[in-house]
Amino acid sequence: MQSLWMLFASFMFAVMGVCVKLASEAFSTSEIVMYRGVVGVIVLAAIIKSQGGSFRTTMPLAHLWRCVIGVVSLWLWYYSIGELPLATAMTLNYLSPIWIAVWLFALGWWHAKGDIQWPLMLAVMMSFVGVILLLQPAFHANQLTPALVALCSSVLTAMAYMQVRKLGLAGEPESRVVFYFAVTNIVAGLLGNIVLAGGKPVTWHPIDSWHGALLLLGIGVCATSAQVAMTRAYRLGQTLVVANLQYTGIVFSSIWGVLVFGDVFSAMSWAGIAIILASGMAATFYNTRNTERGKAIDKADPISSEV
After folding, report:
1. Are the CB atoms for 16 and 74 separated by under 8 Å?
2. When comparing pLDDT for 115 and 278, which is higher?
3. How is 149-216 classified by DSSP, letter by letter?
4. Are 93 and 154 in contact (CB under 8 A)?
């Protein structure tokens, strides 16, 4: 079931990416982050109340850390989507599973004396090979800065995902985790727009069309539902398997590129899609067959041992 949650999250993130790309023509990055937070707070507050949940948490500092690194990563990612081709920005951001794999490799090697899940590591690496074949990102000189920004976003995204898993393992419900993140989006969007004004009058672009309003609403709804699904996937699943399945977001983004933007893919690109899907299924199959989860996974997963 955790695999299906991650697949749904990846699909919704891909839809969100399309909306962000279109909305960036009329709104600033800070405004998009803020409006995403507004929609998220409204939806999640309604869900929490309807389920009889509570906004109180026993882990405020853990939530704060997740929100800070998450919102900075989000802001950088949205900026790169606006400045780079959508496929390139998505490729760089989806480096985050590689950073997770490197982290688990280093910690697993240190604590378990070489007891590493090499099949999962190989699946993650093959997924990235598929991403390269699919998108074949190339940067011009004037795209270097946003490309580095997207790379930094992927590192912070990996850190945020690890913290999401820690909160999930500690028993925090998905809706509460994402609710506090949405609140941080509002604060970060407001402050970001004020700071970037540099002492000049703060500019807020009006929502004067149904097109703009629907794009902002779509960003908020897609992002919120994807965040909830992703949080549940990381709470229920095994870190590297869930991280590997994120690559399907590239496949979904490519399909949207064909349908919305008229993108054309070569045979090499379709081969990349096949590699991504195959490695994702292989990782899921390996995790399902690996019934002795206790010793190997606990030793190789520093998050579960920490909690």
Report:
1. no
2. 278
3. HHHHHHHHHHHHHHHHHHHHHTT--HHHHHHHHHHHHHHHHHHHHHHHHTTSPPP-----SHHHHHHH
4. yes
To the question of pTM greater than 0.85 for the whole model, the response is: no
Q: Alpha-carbon distance 296 to 290, whole Å?
A: 10
pLDDT digits (tens, 9 = 90+) for 112-148: 655 566 777 787 788 778 877 866 665 555 777 888 8
**What type of residue is 257?**
G
pLDDT tens-digit map of 31-70: 999 999 999 999 999 989 998 888 998 899 999 999 999 9
Is residue 235's pLDDT more than 80?
A: no
Type of residue at 81: I
Supply the DSSP symbol for 292. -
Give the distance from CA 120 to its chain's centroid: 20
pLDDT of 198 > 50? The answer is yes
- Residue 248 is predicted with a pLDDT of 84
Rounded CA separation 38/222 (Å):
13
Q: Where are the alpha helices (DSSP H) in the chain?
A: 2-23, 29-50, 60-83, 86-93, 96-112, 118-135, 144-169, 174-197, 210-236, 239-245, 248-261, 267-289, 293-300, 302-306
Give CA–CA dist 138/87, Å, rounded.
Answer: 11
CB 5, CB 230: distance < 8 Å: yes
Going by pLDDT thresholds of 50, 70 and 90, the confidence category of residue 307 is very low
179 and 40 in contact (C-beta within 8 Å)? yes
For the chain, the first-to-last Cα distance in angstroms comes to 23
Q: Residue 254: which of 235, 272, 232 has the closest Cα?
A: 272
